[in-house]
Amino acid sequence: MLRVASPLPVLFVQTSMPVGGAETLLVNLVRRMDREAFAPELVCLKQRGPLGDRLAEEGVPVHYNLLSGKFDLRVLPRLTALMRHRSIGAVVTVGAGDKMFWGRLAARAAGVPVVAAALHSTGWPDGVGRLNRMLTSITDAFIAVAEPHGRFLVDFEKFPASKVRVIPNGVDTERFTPTPHAMAIRDELGVGPTTPLVGILAALRPEKNHDLFLAAASRVLHAVPEAKFIVIGDGPERRHIEETATMLGLYDPLDPEASPLRMLGNRDDVPAVLAALDVLTLTSHNEANPVSILEAMSCGLPVVATNVGSVGESVIEGQTGYLVPAGDKRLLADRVIELLNEPLLAQELGEAGRVRVVERSSLDVMVGGYERLIAELYRQKTGREVQVTERTAPAEKVALAV
């Protein structure tokens, strides 16, 4: 069998690269891919966004501004020409919507051998839609981020089971580590070393349902008056969240630093911020395999989250945290209060979460899954082999992936 003489150009297709879970995963994937086997590039149909800028600064080819609006049909010849010019060997669209449609259609037009679509959600606002389903026949693989998510793609989205592959999301377990006495962030926030501190890490978008976090925080504050809360992330819902928090007495816009709740926005030091917390929550209406939970567990934090999507793959009830029904502010608050009042239990759950993430959700597991999938599909389509170096993922976890 012929081997590919030079690294295989792989093009990932996104709309833009703001700070978010799927975008952070893509940054880590691009950074970690074996440069002797693959030459990753990124196209943002619209603007690059801060994470696209970051990859460009690191020397990754980042192409952008190919789509001027929803009805800009010229995006197809632009993308097709780009893929031909760059001799792209594999295209991976990331997420549903326009990038999934135009990316795969252009790949077909350009004669790209491998066409795959990675999905990171279980529905609104990232539903696949009829047009994208029409391109199933030209797609070699649909990538799910957890086993339940894979079943969702087969049962609900109606993709052929033979084309659905599961590659679990992964986080950098060497960067996200437990840091006892993480006082720098607490000092910055004016929070004492023993003050109960509860956080949520999520883009400020409607589907993350920060209203539930605020409602639960209000209840927690009545039971644990010294508790403090932080919201990490930014997005279009910021003003609504601030107004709601103000109405609940959690936030004073005239004196935010003295408020029980602080809005931190996007942070470059997320591992340090997480390490300063006692409990992380996630309150989404829907999720697939959220990165924020994996990052928190990697830091040794117990997690209380809504039981949606594949969250239950990471948050094991009573072992690594607690699951609550979506929208249940009472139980969410009760579980947080329990963990704040029982620090030894919180520590036990956090330690178990760290072990689970290291074993199942490291970056090597995720990156190795993508590398093997692309190499396998490329070999099937061209008869040529991409030499992939096996990564040191636990054998039992490789079996879960591709």
TrEMBL record:
Top EC class for this record: transferase
Domain Glycosyl transferase family: 185-354
Record GO terms (molecular function): glycosyltransferase activity
Gene3D superfamilies linked: Glycogen Phosphorylase B
Lineage: superkingdom: Bacteria
EC code: 2.4.-.-
Taxonomic lineage: Bacteria, Pseudomonadati, Planctomycetota, Planctomycetia, Pirellulales
Tagged with keyword Signal: no
Domain (Glycosyltransferase subfamily 4-like N-terminal): residue spans on this chain: 19-175
Keywords recorded for this protein, A-Z: Glycosyltransferase, Transferase
Protein name, UniProt field: Glycosyltransferase EpsF
